[in-house]
Hints:
Arc Repressor Mutant, subunit A; 2 domains; Tetracycline Repressor, domain 2; 72% helix
Amino acid sequence: MGKLKVAKNESRKDLIVKAGASLFREKGFGAASMRDLAENIGVEAASLYNHIKSKNEILESICFDVANLFNTHLEDVDAADATPIAKIDLLLRFHIHQMIENVEEVLVADREWKHLGEPYRSNFHSQRRNYRKRFAAILQEGIKKNEIKAIDAATAVLIMLHAVAGIESWHRATTKISAQELEENMVTILINGLKK
């Protein structure tokens, strides 16, 4: 067992959080231990506590980093001078990119957030709910402008987000289309299904 080795632009905490995301995705938050994490990183478990208090702190970091990333992007898109369809296109592409490039963090935030302690769990749950409402409001604007079919916006958002979450299986496929083809196919199918 040695010291934590980090890249130039990465902190030790960043390395621990990234390794934690990988471990939580593989084992689930409940089954993962700090000892497992230390083994994966190649250090003594005790040395992790110099950089992080607990596995709960790692989960908090993962969940709120992901939430902040998505909320910031949504704010930028919502403020853009674009049609509702163009905004939905931007949001979907961002979700797809995150599932391709940061799959472990995104999946852990999506699946393991219920293990957050209070008040973090309520805060995160509220952020998820508000995100979906704001996304649905963009669809509703498109319906009002006659760009989008008269559908239930909240249900459409859930369907789109669940479709994007399915990209996880693309990562495990032995033969797969490129990330760019995957993105174009998904956006085409999902956007064309909305257009009037």
